[in-house]
Amino acid sequence: MGRFPSIAADKAKTGAAKGKLYSMYSRDIYDKAKKGGANPDANFALKQVIEKAKKDQVPADIIKRALDKVNSGASEDFEETRYEVIGPNGSTAIVECLTDNVNRSVSDVRTAVNKAKCKMGGINSVSYNYDNLAIVTFKCDDEESVLMALLDEGIEVIDEEVENGNITISVVPTDQYKMKQVIEKIIPNVEYLQDEIGMYPKEKVTLDGEDKEYFERLIRLLDEVEDVKTVYHNVEL
User: Fold this and answer.
1) Where would I find the H helices in 56-198?
2) Which of 11, 60, 147, 190 sits between 20 and 30 A of 89, alpha carbons compared?
3) Buried b vs exposed e over 124-157: b needs ≥16 C-beta within 10 Å?
């Protein structure tokens, strides 16, 4: 879907991948609940990650345990970190981690990057070619009404794409909550096929041969790293 496909690291439905997925959601739910309160109705960030966890079929007891941990007064500290990666022939990646050990995460990410014959970049060596956006995708047969309603509320639509009856809308992250309120007023019980804040490339590149093999290896290795939450990249795969 043009610029805005789901470009998180591949989460194959193997036992190991499911275990990592569940663990990352557990961390993320705990972290957001600890920072903003354990009531999803009063903590939009928490509500959003719980909704995503349910869509990814994370068992209810894992979600409950993460919330119970906060309510019990347990004290764990997680930090969000970001690494920029330069790959072959104009390819780049942004790796987001949620970790309780920054030294471990940077070491594990660097090992994966080196094995894929890519290199770590400095701050903003890659990210200047990406936009930080909030995007939603949902079924819609009257996109003009939705777009006009957003405009009426003073929400600037950065980009929009329509494909196969689905519309994808992007706005600045600070407008995410307000955008969803407008959409849900027009389409009650709307189901979001995609609902996230992420880093999206301004332009994409196509790789061939060995370059493509190395970049695919990079994505695969990063997805195996315990602390890696999301990988964004600019490659058509």
Assistant:
1) 60-71, 102-115, 143-152, 176-186
2) 11
3) eebbebbbebbbbbbebeeeeebbeebeeeebee
Residue 13 pLDDT > 50, yes or no? no
| Coil vs helix vs strand at 55 | helix
Tokens of 19: 């275990």
pLDDT for the residue numbered 12: 41
| Ramachandran angles phi, psi of 195, nearest 5° | -155, 95
Give tens-digit pLDDT for 79-101: 999 999 999 999 999 999 999 99
Q: Percentage helix, strand, coil, to 5, in the chain?
A: 45, 25, 30
Q: Tokens 């995460």 — which residue?
A: 105
- This prediction has a pTM of 0.84
Give all domains of the chain, ordered by start, each with its CATH number. Answer: 15-71 (1.10.10.200), 79-128+202-233 (3.30.70.980), 130-199 (3.30.70.980)
Give the number of residues written for the chain: 237
Query: For 57, phi and psi rounded to 5 degrees?
Result: 60, 35
Look up residue 144 and give its two tokens: 């003009």
Contacts of 94 by beta carbon, 8 Å cutoff, 6+ apart:
82, 83, 84, 85, 126, 127, 130, 199, 231, 232, 233
Compute the mean pLDDT over every residue in the chain, rounded to the nearest whole number: 91
